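Hi C.,

You asked whether I'd gotten around to modeling the 508-residue construct. I have! Everything is below, sequence then structure, no commentary in between.
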Amino acid sequence: MNQKVFKYLKYYNSKPVKVDRLVVSAFIRANDLNIKNNKFIKQYIVEPENIVEYKKVKELVSIILYEYSAFDLEGLIKLFEFVISPSDKTINGAIYTPSYIREYIVKQTFNKKGIRLENVKIADISCGCSGFLFTAAKELKKRTGNSYQYIFQNQLFGLDIQDYSITRSKLLLSLLALSEGEDIEEFHFNLHRGDALVFNWKEHYDNFDGFQIIVGNPPYVCARNLEKSVRNNLQHWSVCESGNPDLYIPFFQIGYENLSENGILGYITMNTFFKSLNGRALRSYFETNKTKIRIIDFGALQVFESKSTYTCICFLENSPNSYVEYYKSVQKELPINNNQFSKINYCYLNARKGWNLNNNEIVSRIEATGKPLGEKYKMRHGIATLKNDLYIFKPIREDDDFYYLQNGSIYPIEKGICKDILNSNKLSRNVIFDEVTEKVLFPYNNEVKPRAIEENVLREKFPNAYYYLKTKKRRIGQKRQRQRQLRTMVCIWQNTIFRKGPKQVVLP
């Protein structure tokens, strides 16, 4: 959708019901739909008698049709995803999945041997506005001839944490049916509002024995943006026992354990679990269960328009297998048959150190040569001064005792309180190492678990550094804030620190 359309919606109204009425009415008007029976959709139709609101509907239709030849259902999905508030996107990780990705995942899962589509049960356990269920419904009707009324009531199941996402799911699926002439008074849906981390499907459906197909795009929320209640709920899942897991990690286990025997799961999600500490427990889970897994790795190729992230498509089957199937996409192409995948036996993969999936044999030989970096240096999440311009500097000169820091005035800083630091983002083949090395003022002791130097010790041992910090007290903040900043400034080891974000290295 064009930015003009998004801008119009952005400034229209923040209330979901208001936005939904506008968008739904615009879709119905643009497509000249005549809704006679469906009570649910009728609630969202803006009538001409509502002069102000109806004017907004006509304006939105004009903007859309000026930029595009049609306002189709795919455009509706994009609008529903766009109008999710930025704060909710940060917390819940909602993101629009391109139609070609959804179609590929759905078709691949539908083609699995042994699945009878006439009565198959399909779920998306983080459904958002149900783009995946929309695609699945269309494909089911095409292959089986089942009515949408039957498909919605008996074959599709969705779960999302937001009420408005469930409402928009019902709107989208209803409009799909109505667009194809299926206008009944009421559709019955299996769409639930709930937290997938604690939701129990057995409590909602008698004799529940799993879904034959699960599809979706698990939420893109990094660990630092998770609310406390969410972090607590992560503890229910064994795949979250390593590092600080991002929210997508447990959705593998949740999905896999809600598959029926011989069922299949298809996700597009982040590929960081291949190597990250956060993914160690997940890799171990796959290896322990001998999970049948097929991976299409996009590497650094960007699949999503609105989010920069590294992604992959994963298919998991609820049947044991001794190897992982892997395909590296070069130009975002998608493999059309299983012969295009390489097979990597689990015995050649290392859950603890990370999976080498691309050129596995070559990379494994390289890593087996010499002494691993992790054995030479202790590495943790690293430096975060919150005030880099106060602590990190390039000396304008030095003598035997001091580095001279220029920050407003020139300050001599004792060499004994400084360490070398390197921003790895500045590294390349053509960069001279010494030229990008800076100094960091480091008011900590040199223990394995460093502690902030006491103020009286700092004043006596490093009077010049102490004076400098005192002059910058206002910027650093009051005592409690200053102590918090100093404590979060660094997680240090004896020799080397790497930092996520821009990466930095403190040198011995």
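If it helps when you're writing up: The longest helix spans residues 51-67.

Thanks,
B.
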